UniProtKB/TrEMBL annotation:
Family: Belongs to the HisA/HisF family.
Catalytic site: 12, 131
Associated pathway: Amino-acid biosynthesis; L-histidine biosynthesis; L-histidine from 5-phospho-alpha-D-ribose 1-diphosphate: step 5/9
Organism: Gordonia soli NBRC 108243
Gene name linked to the record: hisF
Protein name, per record: Imidazole glycerol phosphate synthase subunit HisF
Classification of source organism: Bacteria, Bacillati, Actinomycetota, Actinomycetes, Mycobacteriales
MF (Gene Ontology): imidazoleglycerol-phosphate synthase activity; lyase activity
Length: 257
C-alpha cells in the first residue's frame, strides 16, 4: 500500500506572531498564527507545525493560547515544538490541543526523556526534531559528516546526525523531523544526500525540512526517502501554494492526499 505524502507548512511563532528569516537570522513578521493556520487548512495542508522560537517560560503562556485557539479552528493534525523539555510540557501542549510535540534540545541534553515521553503518551505523539548541518572543516568529523546542532544551527554538538536519528527511533519516537541547517531558508532545494542517509537508518517516517524554493523541489525529497515535506517562507509569503506543490508532486508520480 502506498502511503500518501504529507505537505506540512511550518510556522515559526515568536511571542504570538509568525516570523521567518534565513538561517534563523533577520526575522520578519509573517502574520497571525491562527489566521495562517486556518488558511492552510482551507488550502489543503495535511498537517501544521508550530515552532515556538521564543520558547522561554515567559512566552509559554502565549504559545499555549495560540495552540488552543488554533486547535479550535482547524481540523488537521497540529505539531508543536520549541522549548518542550519535560513530560509535563508535552502534557500541557496536548491538553491545549496539539496532536504531537517535537523535541530537540532537551533530548540532546538527556536522551532518556524521549523514552519517558513516548511511553507516557505513545510514540505517535513524539517527534524528534534534528537540526543537522555539514560538520565544519575546523571541527572534529562525525561518522557521516553531518552533525546535530542547537541554537538555530549556530552551535554544533559533535553528535552524528544519522546516528542520532537512529537513537531517537530506538528510544521510541514516532517520527523524525530532519531540518537541514545548511539549506534552511536558501530555497535551493532539500538536502537529498542527508535525507537518503537518514532514511536508510530508520524505519519511522521522516519529514524533510529546509531548502524548499520551487514546486519542483518537493518530489526529489520524496524520492530520497521523505514521508512528508515541510516548508515555511515559500508558503507564508505566497511564493507557492499547497495546491501547486501537490500538483507538481502528482505530476512527478508522487501519491499525495
Amino acid at each position: 500500500m502506498t502511503v500518501a505524502v504529507r505537505v506540512i507548512p511550518c510556522l515559526d511563532v515568536d511571542d504570538g506572531r509568525v516570523v521567518k528569516g534565513v538561517n534563523f537570522q533577520n526575522l520578519r513578521d509573517a502574520g497571525d498564527p491562527v489566521e495562517l493556520a486556518e488558511r492552510y487548512d482551507r488550502e489543503g495542508a495535511d498537517e501544521l507545525t508550530f515552532l515556538d522560537v521564543t520558547a522561554s517560560s515567559s512566552g509559554r503562556a502565549t504559545m499555549i493560547d495560540v495552540v488552543r485557539r488554533t486547535a479550535d479552528q482547524i481540523f488537521i493534525p497540529l505539531t508543536v515544538g520549541g522549548g518542550i523539555r519535560t513530560v509535563e510540557d508535552v502534557d500541557t501542549m496536548l491538553r491545549a490541543g496539539a496532536d504531537k510535540v517535537s523535541v530537540n534540545t532537551a533530548a540532546i541534553a538527556r536522551p532518556e526523556v524521549l523514552g519517558e515521553m513516548s511511553r507516557r503518551f505513545g510514540s505517535q505523539c513524539i517527534v524528534l526534531s534534528v537540526d543537522a548541518r555539514t560538520v565544519p572543516d575546523d571541527s572534529e568529523p562525525t561518522a557521516t559528516g553531518w552533525e546535530v546542532t542547537t541554537h538555530g544551527g549556530r552551535r554544533g554538538t559533535g553528535i552524528d546526525a544519522v546516528e542520532w536519528a537512529r537513537r531517537g527511533q530506538e528510544l521510541g519516537v514516532g517520527e523524525i523531523l530532519l531540518n537541514s541547517m545548511d539549506a534552511d531558508g536558501t530555497k535551493q532545494g532539500f538536502d537529498l544526500r542527508m535525507l537518503a542517509a537518514v532514511r536508510a537508518a530508520v524505519g519511522v517516517p521522516v519529514i524533510a525540512s529546509g531548502g524548499a524554493g520551487r514546486s519542483a523541489d518537493f518530489a526529489p525529497a520524496v524520492d530520497a526517502g521523505a514521508d512528508a515535506v515541510l516548508a515555511a517562507s515559500v508558503f507564508h509569503f505566497g511564493e507557492l501554494t499547497i495546491a501547486e506543490v501537490k500538483s507538481a508532486m502528482r505530476d512527478a508520480g508522487v501519491t499525495v492526499r
